Amino acid sequence: MYAILGGSGFEKFEQFQVVENIKIETPWGAHSSGMKRVKIGGNECIFLSRHGEHHEKLPSEVNFRANIFAFKKLGVKAVLSFSAVGSLRKEFKPGDMVLVSQYIDRTKGIRPHTFLGDGLVGHVSLAKPVCDKPVKAIEKMSSKYDFKCHFGQTYICIEGPYFSTKSESNYYRQIGADIIGMTHFPEFALAREAGLTYIPCCFITDYDCWDDSIPHVTLEEVIKVMRQNNGKAFRMAEDILATGDQLYRDCDCRNQGLKTGLMTPKEAIPKEKMPWLEVLLS
Length: 282
Fold this sequence. Notes:
By secondary structure, the protein is an alpha/beta fold. The chain is built from 7 helices and 11 strands. Strands 1, 2, 3, 4, 5, 6, 7, 8, 9, 10 and 11 form an 11-stranded mixed β-sheet that branches.
């Protein structure tokens, strides 16, 4: 089963058929508000607005651990992430979709970013944070869309809520970033710890501030692009869900994460942690 995480501009999709509202208790507190079981073209999935149902959480305030744990507890196998991002390259234009394969973390260390700690020790590889198999399948699928799709780029995650200075924006370009956002870390890393396939579909709303020759857009223009991107994302979601489990069935993510990265011997794990740890290891 898929979970869809909707970022800015993707807090809701009018075409959803809501089956039920869901609330899951987690050891890390409440997940973002408004979790729902929905139907898209007859196929069920879990939907959650990353920033909350009414966009009430800053990027740094999102309870990433609670969101990912809730998905795992509900039986989710793959997370389809829709996000609004800025472009750091002229060739990636507003309205385009970028399915990234790499990340650079430039958050400030204030976000809880792992299920480990407090008696649990482990090390999880993030060398390939996005599994190749679903990306290749979506790349083949994308030829039918009337918007441009890019694959294999690098996303740099900043703390926010501020946008970059011009110097920062140019620095991010120099170190190899292609698009910029505020929410994918630690989301993708926690998904890997939990053994979930993470599929990050990023829709560009505007250019970051690195080039004065590119006019800076107004909020009104950004909102207009967001609305258009919402419809594009829904079409992608409909097509991806229609494939059932084909995109993630043979994904290597399920055999990675804490399942193979946990170093603390089972007998040394604090008893109060075992119930939720077993969920993540399942």
